[in-house]
Automatic annotation (TrEMBL):
Name recorded for this polypeptide: Pectate lyase
Originating organism: Halostreptopolyspora alba
Signal sequence coordinates: 1-31
Any one of the GO BP annotations: polysaccharide catabolic process
Compartment list: Secreted
Keyword Lyase included in the entry's annotation: yes
Length: 338
């Protein structure tokens, strides 16, 4: 058994082994180093250290409104190396930063509590099998993780969840949505993610009949790399203003952005390459929405369909030159891109 003095030394070493965040520009940041190797002995167990500072930067967009989004800042840091540990720690009370090491497997959808950051260590931290359910939660950050082969959604926001930042993750080969946001969720930023070898990327709005979403679903999508993914980048119902800026759309089989059910979508500074249908006004059986487009680049792509007017966004942001997006976004999107 460790003495109190030994335990304190262990806690101090672990604290010094966690790095400060590294700024990435455009209001984003990434990631902590791992706990010291000498602590990883015996059976894998969650490790905790006191850490008064966040391991991430600050979002841009809607996640800065409504009091802002800080995740687990001010709480302890917990390192997990298995899916069971991750599922347990995501339900713990109080603010915390959960650092995922290596590849972990989840079963089904797993709830995360308010005031939580889930962040991958290095560039290889991976979640397979299941996903993260942000359900009636507030102030959550999910960052620097590879999601693959999930059986439902990789990340699902629902039931009035607010102030969520989904940043610098990758998504591939899942069963349903990569990032679905619905059922009155609000004040969300989805930034610097890489979606590839996947079909349904990002749904916004539960269904045509779920009119409770009106007045909610305020989401910013920026600097995401939709890399050969098929559809929903995003597919929007009801939300206003939904802001898609400086994303890189490449070889998307069905469409880029769809505005339906009187949603108000602002599409600006994006680069569409080999995309036959950059935008849709209405889709399937859904009524048309509204869409305003500014300063986008169409490279061997179809025309951008627009309709009506859209309310301006209330936050400050910096718009990169759309011509530069094919060099900026692939270099910076996804896990490990410091």
């Amino acid at each position: 058994m460790r003495t109190t003095q030994q335990a304190n030394r262990r806690r101090t070493r672990a604290l010094t082994g966690i790095g400060a965040f590294v700024a990435l520009g455009a209001g984003t940041a990434l990631i902590a180093s791992t706990l010291p190797a000498e602590e990883a002995t015996g059976a894998p167990t969650a490790q905790t250290v006191a850490d008064p500072s966040p391991l991430v930067g600050e979002p841009t967009g809607w996640a800065t409104e409504n009091g802002g989004t800080t995740g687990g800042a001010g709480g302890e840091t917990v390192t997990v190396t298995s899916g069971d540990e991750l599922a347990e720690e995501m339900l713990a009370d109080g603010p915390r930063i959960i650092e995922v090491q290596g590849s972990v497997e989840l079963d089904g959808m797993n709830d995360v509590a308010s005031d939580t950051t889930v962040i991958g260590a290095g560039s290889q931290a991976t979640i397979t099998g299941g996903g993260i359910d942000v359900d009636e939660a507030h102030n959550v950050i999910i960052q620097n993780l590879n999601f693959a082969d999930w059986d439902d959604d990789a990340i699902n926001l629902q039931d009035g969840s607010t102030n969520v930042w989904i940043d610098h993750n990758s998504f591939t080969n899942g069963d349903d949505g990569a990032v679905d946001i619905k059922r009155e969720s609000d004040f969300v930023t989805v930034s610097w993610n890489h979606v590839f070898e996947h079909d349904k990327s990002m749904l916004l709005g539960h269904s045509d009949g779920h009119t409770d979403d009106i007045g909610h679903l305020r989401v910013t999508y920026h600097h995401n790399f939709f890399d050969g993914s098929d559809t929903r980048h995003p597919r929007v119902r009801f939300g206003e203003t939904v802001h898609a800026f400086n994303n890189y759309y490449r070889d998307n089989e069905e469409y880029g952005v769809a505005s339906t059910m009187d949603a108000g979508v602002l599409v600006e500074g994006n680069y569409f390459e080999d995309v036959d249908t950059p935008t849709e006004i209405g889709y399937g059986s859904s009524d048309p929405g509204r869409l305003v487009a500014n300063d986008n680049v169409l490279d061997n792509s179809g025309e951008i369909a627009t309709e009506g007017e859209v309310e301006p966004v209330p936050y400050d942001y910096s718009l990169d030159d759309a011509e530069e997006i094919p060099s900026i976004v692939p270099a910076g999107a996804g896990p490990g891109n410091l």
